[in-house]
Amino acid sequence: MTRLLTAGLALLWMTLGALAQDAAAPMQAILQQHAQTIVKSSRKTIEPAIAAVDGSGLAQAQDVLEAWQSKDMWQRQSDGLFFRADEGESGTYRLTDFDTGEIIGEADKSDLRQIKPNSGIRALLGAALVRFQLTDPDPAKRQEALAAIERTPEAAALAPLRASIGDEPDAAIKAKKQRLERLLTISSDTDPLARVAAIEEMSGDLGVDLRAALNPLVATRLEIAQGDFPAGLNIARELRIGPDISIDAAYDHLVAARLAPARGSSDATKSILAANIEEGRVGGIPLANLVSEEARTRAYAALVDAGRAPAIPGDDDIARAVAAHRFAEVYADPSAQVTAAAVESLTRIETLVGLNQSVDLMLDAISLASIYFLAAIGLAITFGVMGVINMAHGEFIMMGAYTGFVVQQIIPNHTVSILVAIPLAFAVTFAAGVAMERLVIRWLYNRPLETLLATFGISIALQQLAKNIFGTQARPLTAPAWLDGAWVVNDIISISLIRIAIFVLALLFLGLFLYIMRGTRLGLETRAVTQNRRMAGSMGINPERVNMLTFGLGSGIAGIAGVAIGLFSKVTSELGSDYIVQSFMTVVVGGVGNIWGTLAGATMIGFLQKGIEWLNPANTLAAQTYMIIFIIIFIQFRPRGIVALKGRAAGD
């Protein structure tokens, strides 16, 4: 009797102790309640355990979920309790109690079992942690939570996301939360009116994420019915046989839905005939006679009559089966209000996307036109003003780009190196142009064919010289950090900062050229020599000096263009040959001898090329071909170019 009383008191004491422990350690109690599930770590059964921790309302829930996700949660095998464990210096593990946050002691690894959640469980833990991370004091963690919602938008994140918006101190993060809340409302809210309001609020937004949220709402599936369609279907449209769906396609849908027998194929028929061979016959017909289609048809019909093969539907059977059914496209979303709002919003967005794509195409065309203008402005001087066909003009562009590369090898600061490279490229190519004019061009004035052949030979020689010095590998010309990235208006319209800089540089050179030609002595003398060489000479102007300086100026500007072009293009010995044809076309189409014509020609060619590439984006070579054909036709009707010279210069 005494022993029974002692055992009963001990059991009562242990029960009271366990109850006291549960009261003092509520998180540990939850973990113990789901201990087997946690240790098993199965993706299929773990959700109740995660939900119990997440929904406990305890302050320790976040710490437990984070430790669990990072594989820092361990179970002590001696008593089955769970702790956060960190390896100590002596090889033992320090145990931190989840409820108190205090270190309660150490344990050998042999007495511990690490909880190792797989990737699926870690994803579930991450989703549960979002609620805590959305209000975390650390902005980085709040950003991480929003990124997690963007990756896997789930309905469960909507409520905590809404609750966190009001107290968000960071304006940028708050705006991102509000946008995500609207997107989740569209895709996951149970109230159709709230979803419609969110769709209307964001209607006109060009973000890809909005279109990704709206597109599933207007997705449809095919529904087949005999008679009336079931009530509650959100029908997009009923399909009419003929205008909307062919009779063959409709019957194929019936077969797929097992509402009609499959059509017989040649292979299927042969398989059934082979399976019913009996004593050298099929359907009473000898095998030797089955070489003809007619015999096989009779044999198959005999098998059908005997119930040993399915009947092959004929055209009349197919028509009757299709006529007995109705076909409709049904929205996946059950709410007609939501799908109507989504369709209207997507229609508006499609219109805006088209308009913005047009603007983006125009910006690309302007950018390309500025590049062509910058490459051609030097040629407008040497060819347009002086009348010299310089086939080596592209190589001056290449020399300018390589000058920028060499400067960057010496000056590592990209901003400083570009600022140094621009005047240095001008000086190098100016000197090269002067040398070329003095040594070659001066002897070939008014002899265009000889000039073309001579400069073409110089072009080949300069390319080979560049290969010998720099090799055939493309050399990098790195833009300054402040030119990285792009000017982004929205998800459709954007243009790189380098191209904007080239556009500004082209405008500066347009102003510089106009100033030189109209506001300096060199410009006055150049125009005088161009219009009447003998009269200019009699007025004390040295025509040879003017020609030398003018040719050097055009070559120097080409060098600066090479630095600009090299910032976004590969710097190779063939760099100039990529732009020489466009440069000549720009000058000729715009009007020889007129800077405004060069600008007009560059604009026309830039827009024309981008337009052709938009119509045929898969073949840029075809775009170049079509552009050249168009320009040839254009010159037939306007041989003097867009802006033709007037007066005596035009006659010359």
Task: Write up what this structure looks like.
It is a single chain. This protein has 652 residues and is an alpha+beta fold. It has 4 domains: 2-121, no CATH class; 134-218; 220-335, no CATH class; 356-651, ABC transporter involved in vitamin B12 uptake, BtuC (Orthogonal Bundle), CATH 1.10.3470. Helix content is 62%, strand content 8%. Strand 8 and strand 9 form a beta hairpin. Helix 9 (171-188) packs across helix 10 (192-202). The longest helix is centred in the middle third of the chain and has 50 residues, at 336-385. It is extended. It starts with a helix and ends with a helix. Mean pLDDT is 83; it is low at 1-23 and 647-652.
From the 3D structure, determine the CATH topology of the largest domain.
Answer: ABC transporter involved in vitamin B12 uptake, BtuC
**Mean pLDDT over the residues:** 83
Rg from C-alpha positions? 40 Å
Major sheet description: 5 strands, antiparallel
| Binned strand content | 5-15%
Placed side by side, the strands forming the largest sheet appear as 4-3-2-1-5
Structural class: alpha+beta
In total, the number of domains comes to: 4
- Shape, principal axes of CA atoms: extended
Number of strands: 12
Distance between the termini: 135 Å
Helix content: 55-70%
